[in-house]
Amino acid sequence: MTSTVLIGGSAPEHESQAATVADRAFQYGDGVFETLRIANGSVRFLESHLQRLANGCERLRIPAPDASTLRDEIERVAGATRDAVVKVIVSRGPGGRGYRAPEQPTPTRVVALYPLPAPDSGPLALRWCDTRVARQPILAGLKHLNRLEQVLAQSEWSDAGIQEGLMLDTEGELIGGTSSNVFVVRDGVLVTPDLRYCGVRGVMRKQVIDCARTLGVPVSEEPLWPEDLPGAKEVFVTNAVRGIRPVATLAELAWSDHTLARRLSAELRL
Amino acid sequence: MTSTVLIGGSAPEHESQAATVADRAFQYGDGVFETLRIANGSVRFLESHLQRLANGCERLRIPAPDASTLRDEIERVAGATRDAVVKVIVSRGPGGRGYRAPEQPTPTRVVALYPLPAPDSGPLALRWCDTRVARQPILAGLKHLNRLEQVLAQSEWSDAGIQEGLMLDTEGELIGGTSSNVFVVRDGVLVTPDLRYCGVRGVMRKQVIDCARTLGVPVSEEPLWPEDLPGAKEVFVTNAVRGIRPVATLAELAWSDHTLARRLSAELRL
After folding, report:
1. Among A14, A179, B96, B143, which is disulfide-ready with B102 (CB 3.0 to 4.6 Å)?
2. Angle formed by the axes of helices A203-214 and A46-60, to 10°?
C-alpha cells in the first residue's frame, strides 16, 4: 500500500489517528521536526537531518526513533518521486499528567510527502518583521514544534513580491528569516548569527559553513545586528528545501553581488 | 450519542480525525486552550474562560468559535458528571503554506472531559525550577499551545512530595508556577507578578484579584523577584482546576499563615 503520510509507520486508519488530538504535539507542541528536500530522486543531506533530529530528541528527552526506521519510512513516502519535500515530526506521543511528560513515553512519528514550493524567479526581496524571537537558551538551535513566533511573523505580510522576512530577537539582534538562516559577507568573512539565545540551527546552515571553510572562505558565527547589513557586500538566506537564496533587496537596501551564494550552490550541487 | 471528546462538535470518527496530524496545533502549536473545572455539576467561571479564549483567538487572529456552541459542547461532554475537568482547544486548523496562516482558516475545536486530579492533602511544598520562561511580550498572558517551557520545567522533579515548581523568566523575575499563578502577601498588600513580558493570565488569577479588591484588600500587579519571597507573610498559587492552594514551603522557606488564601477560597466558594 502506498501513502504520502505514515503515522508510526502505517498509512492513517481509524486506530492510528484516534490518538492524535491527545498527542503532546497537538496539546503542547511537545516535539521536533525536520523538513527534507528530495532532489533528483534522493534525499539531500539525509544523515545531517537524522543527526539533528536525534540531537533535538535528546535535548527534549524524547526517545529518538531508530534512524534506519526513519530512512525506510522516508523512502516509502517518497516512492518514485523525483523532487519533493518530506516532513518528519517526532513528538513525545500521548499521555502524561498535564504538562508533565510520562516516564515511559511512546513517541509519535509522522513522515509526510509534500510538493515542492514554486521556484524563485531570481534573487529575493526581503522585509523586516515586527515580530521578535524570544531569547530562550534551553531551546536555542532546536527545530521544535513551538512555532507561534514564526506563524505570527509570516502573517505580517501578504505581498507576493516579498519572499522572506528577517527577524530580530527581543533585544534587537538579527536571528534569521522566518524559515531560513541568514548569511552576510563582510570584509571577506562569511558571517552568520551564532544563535546562542534562540533561532534554528538549519541543516543547510551547517552545510554552507562547512563548504565555505573547505573553499578557504573564513566563516564567523557571531552576534549580528541590523546595523551590520548596510555594510555587507553580499547577503543570502538558506534552508533545506530551497537551498541558498541570494538576497537582492531588504527594505531600502540592495545587493547585486551574489558571487559567494552561487559558488556555494554550485559546490553543494543545489 | 455520548462521548468524552468532541472534535468540531462530533464524536471522533474516521473523517473528523483524518485532519489532525495536518492540523496547525500538531504542526506548530498554533492555537489556544482553556482548562475548566466542573464542580457540583456546574462549570466554574465559564464566562471568564470563554472571554479569555475569545481574546486569545483575537490576539492570534484565529476566528473565535461561537460562545454558545462552546457552552453547548462543554455541557455535552460533561453530561451528568458532578466533578471533573474540561479542556477546550481551539487551533487555527489545517492548511497554509508552511508557517504562513491560511487567509480563510477553518479552526479546529476540541472539547474533552478528564477526571479531577487527586486533591491536595494540605498546604503545598514548592521548589524552584531551573527552566526559565522566555520574555515574549506578543504572547504574554495568553494560554497558547506553545508550552515546551512548562513541559521541561515539570520534568525537573519526580518527588511526589513537591506539588508545584516556581519559574523565573530569563531575566530572573518571578513569573509563577508551572501551571499556576502565584500570589504573595507583603505589608498588607496582595501582590502578583504583572506578567507584562510572559506568563499566563489565569482565569483564577483574575477572580482572586477581583475578589480581594471587593473585600477591601489592596492588590498590586507588579514585578516580583525571588528576593521578595522571604519577607512574605503568606504565599499561595492558583489555577482554574485546583482553585487557591496555600503554600507551606518553598525550598528552605516556610509559611504557616494561610488566612487570606482561606478567606478568598471561602468567598469564591471553591
Report:
1. B96
2. 130
A183, A236 contact by CB (below 8 A): yes
Q: Could you tell me the pTM of the whole model?
A: 0.95
- Look at A99 and B147 and tell me if their CB atoms are within 8 Å: yes
C-alpha to C-alpha distances, A239 to A15, A71, A148, A224, A266, nearest whole angstrom: 35, 20, 19, 19, 16
Predicted ipTM beyond 0.90: yes
pLDDT of B122-131, one tens digit each? 999 999 999 9
Q: Give Cβ neighbours of residue B100 (< 8 Å, ≥ 6 apart).
A: A151, A154, A155
Partners of A128 in beta bridges:
A166
- Using only C-alpha atoms, chain B has a radius of gyration, in whole angstroms, of 19
Residue position matching grid coordinates 559577507 = A185
Whether the CB-CB separation of A127 and A250 falls below 8 Å is answered with: yes
- Residue B239 φ/ψ, nearest 5 degrees: -155, 170
* A-B contacts at Cβ under 8 angstroms: 171
Reported as a single tens digit per residue, the pLDDT across B162-185 is 999 999 999 999 999 999 999 999
Interchain contact, B136 vs A149, CB within 8 Å: yes
CB B104 within 8 A of CB B110: no
